[in-house]
Amino acid sequence: MNTSININLPEKGLVLLVGASSAGKSTFAKSHFNSAAILSSDQCRAMVANNEQVLDANQATFEVLYLIVRKRLERGLFTIIDATNLDMEGRKALVRIAHEYHLSTYAIVLQPDLKTLKTRNQQRPDRQLPVRVIVNQHQRARQAVRQLRREGFRQYWLLPEGKETSITYHPMPSDYKTFTGPFDIIGDVHGCFEELLALLNKLGYQVEETATGDFDISTPPGRKIIFVGDLVDRGPASHKVLKLAMQMVAQEQAFCVPGNHDDKLKRHLEGRQVKIAHGLEMTLEQLSATTPEFQQEVLQFLQQLPLHLELDYGKLLVVHAGLEESMHGREGNAVRSFCLYGKTTGKTDEHGLPERYPWAQDYQGKAKIVYGHTPVSQPQWFNQTMCLDTGCVFGGTLTALRYPENEIVQVPALETYAHSSRPFQPPATNNSTTLKAADVLGRKTIATRLCTKILIPANQAIRALETMSRFAVDPRQLIYLPPTMSPVKTSSLPDFLEHPKEAFDYYRKQGLNRVVCQEKHMGSRAVITVGKTAAALTERFGVEKGLGWIITRTGRKFFSDSTTEQTLLTRISNQLSRSGFWERHQTDWVLLDAELMPWSAKASQLLKTQYAATATAGDLSLTAAQVTVDNALLRLPELSPLKERLSQRQENILKFRQAYRHYCWNAAGPEDLRIAPFHLLATEGQVHTDKDHAWHLQELGTFCSKEEPCLVATNHRWVDLDNEEDIQATTEWWLGLTTTGGEGMVVKPASFVARQKNSLVQPALKVRGREYLRIIYGPDYTLPDNMVRLRQRHIKKKRSLAEREFALGIEAMERFVARQALNNVHQCVFSILALESEEVDVSL
């Protein structure tokens, strides 16, 4: 009877087709597998030698083949090797490569009889081999079958000639990606049954024990429990924890991965020799009171548990002890060891225990990893990872993480059931100062939450590297840089280059109906990080800089004098304390976006060498020119228009001088400086860009008061874009500000982040006053010919730049608050600096 053969393969793995020449390997591959997955040695030979039949190119041929195999397996792609694969060392080499990438190797052996091989060889139009070679290969193929298991092949199939064959695929054991949650992920239970019941109840699960010893379990709609392992040992009721977990998994109310303690129990139940210690003796005693049938069920339950779970389309991974990104969705001994025990340094610590390697510090993967194994004092996100083992069995707490809500739920231990050999680990911090140039140099595409892809050209990255290396503060201090700001579109009104009408028209066109207009302080942009205490700031940021730091919008120190900086920060911190800010926001630090005044405090050299010099030179030259023209008028009356023009230009010089002097005053010390914060950007655990500007202004108003003169509230007005009276009143307010020396105003959407369809709306538009623009465009910019020329300015590139930098700045803060690796945060800040070197009209 000619029965068919089904070959069931994993979705990831390496498959070798084994057989003599003319066995039909290529035909089989083409008819059963995706052509992109097939690597043919003949094709590789043709690539390196222009001919499939050049046999002296074997070494180069297999170097190319091995390279492609590595690249495919690195990406987790299913791969087929179409070659004779009769050489044992060649097969072993491919098995080793698969093991490097934590994947298994399989073999499909094609076994036509010798007569069929000879006949096909004679019929080949391209290359016929000597008969002795066919005979030899036939014998070697039969010998290979006996070696495959010893060589490390996970499984193999023999295909005699004429057998109908089908190929099916099964997902990897860890592939639970289609399960998207919501989940309640519970840390190491260690036999603490009563605490588990209390936690489940707090999470909204109802568990009642029946007379038969089973449980009636009701779950919140749609939610599932995930146990991170170590259900057993040390606690008072491991058998009950197992019973409940097994029932929940069987009823599809829960998932579970094994911990190292669970694995040790499994090996004992399998009859293997293990050391009865570290709480296993208690579990075995508790199990001895149960039936042999239950113990067999426990063994079967533990044997079928996946070592880790990939969930929510790869966004979440649950494992007991952790897992490097290269092992996600893979299998093998190395993966098993990491999942159960984590990674060690090979040394022992002061307690005589294996020293654990802090793998989470190096983690840069996209998936969030939730794990246990190592007791910590408090769970918190760090580099996209969170440890939920809070040592319940040692008298700590039993912890659950609600996903995707990111809410922590805990219950305290009822008592201390065991004593830990080493103290709980403190919350993880990333104090590393190591950054990799490869993460920022070259052409990069940065993915952010607000903009899917932001391109950073290689030449701009080089410029940013020089700026960052020579002038910027410690990268650990740089968790945000503000975006550039675009002006409004050029006004159509005859006497104005910029006017509020264009701002209101733009936002109305974007579908918005409410904006806030904030007075634009003529100071210098300052990003302020301030702590409740110096120690708290050092613990969070990993850098000792007193009560904080003030930086410019390009990441440089604002003050060369640290005394002035720390005096200001002390005053701000004290005022935050007086207002109850730290308690209200449950934070020890805050990040503020502000304007620091006067402008002369930072731009004194610019004022002396550029603005004052321009005014003085213009005044002297025009005065001399007027004297000359006055003398010539007696003889040349036709010079009268020139005299009028010179008088107008001298008046413009006077207005220019008055314009910049308005933003200068003598600041002899910190007490003469003023800070006007306009964004409360971030606090511990929160990036506040989800709040509208009304919230920001209200919160800032709680500590910008007369109690502390250095802090100034930002004057503002709200505008209903459908209300002409609002628009007219705000326009007159702007005219009043700008005609009395004010710079102008900034118009923002009511919400911090506004979108129109799939695009970002400009986060802010500046509307600068007529007189202030003399500082930007020069004293004579209002002359008719100059106004005609300046009206041709282009703002499209500036607005694109503002949107990209805005998205990167928010992304940097979100990564920091999520406790991602330093290089992930720095990548965003670095990219803002790189974009700043883009060629854009600086006058905008």
Characterize the structure shown:
The strands form ten sheets. The chain has a five-stranded parallel sheet, with helices on both faces. It is globular and about 120 Å long. The N and C termini lie far apart (84 Å). A hairpin with a 4-residue loop joins strand 14 and strand 15 (316-319). The model has no long low-confidence stretch (mean pLDDT 90). It is α/β, with parallel strands linked by helices and 844 residues long. It is built from 26 helices and 35 strands.
List the helices and strands and how they pair.
Elements: E1 5-10, E2 14-18, H1 25-32, E3 38-40, H2 41-49, H3 58-74, E4 79-82, H4 88-100, E5 105-111, H5 114-123, H6 131-151, E6 155-160, E7 165-170, E8 175-176, E9 183-186, H7 193-203, E10 206-209, E11 215-218, E12 224-227, H8 238-250, E13 254-256, H9 260-269, H10 280-287, H11 292-303, E14 308-311, E15 316-319, H12 333-341, E16 344-348, E17 354-356, H13 359-362, E18 368-371, E19 385-387, E20 397-403, E21 407-412, E22 444-446, E23 454-456, H14 458-470, E24 486-487, H15 500-509, E25 514-520, E26 524-531, H16 534-541, E27 548-551, H17 562-578, H18 581-585, E28 589-597, H19 600-633, H20 640-661, E29 674-683, E30 686-687, H21 693-701, E31 716-720, H22 724-739, E32 744-749, E33 755-756, E34 759-760, E35 765-768, H23 773-777, H24 784-790, H25 796-817, H26 822-836
Parallel strand pairs: 1-7, 2-4, 2-5, 3-4, 5-6, 8-14, 9-12, 12-13, 15-18, 18-19, 24-35
Antiparallel strand pairs: 9-20, 10-11, 14-15, 16-17, 20-21, 22-23, 25-31, 25-32, 26-27, 26-28, 28-29, 29-30, 32-35, 33-34
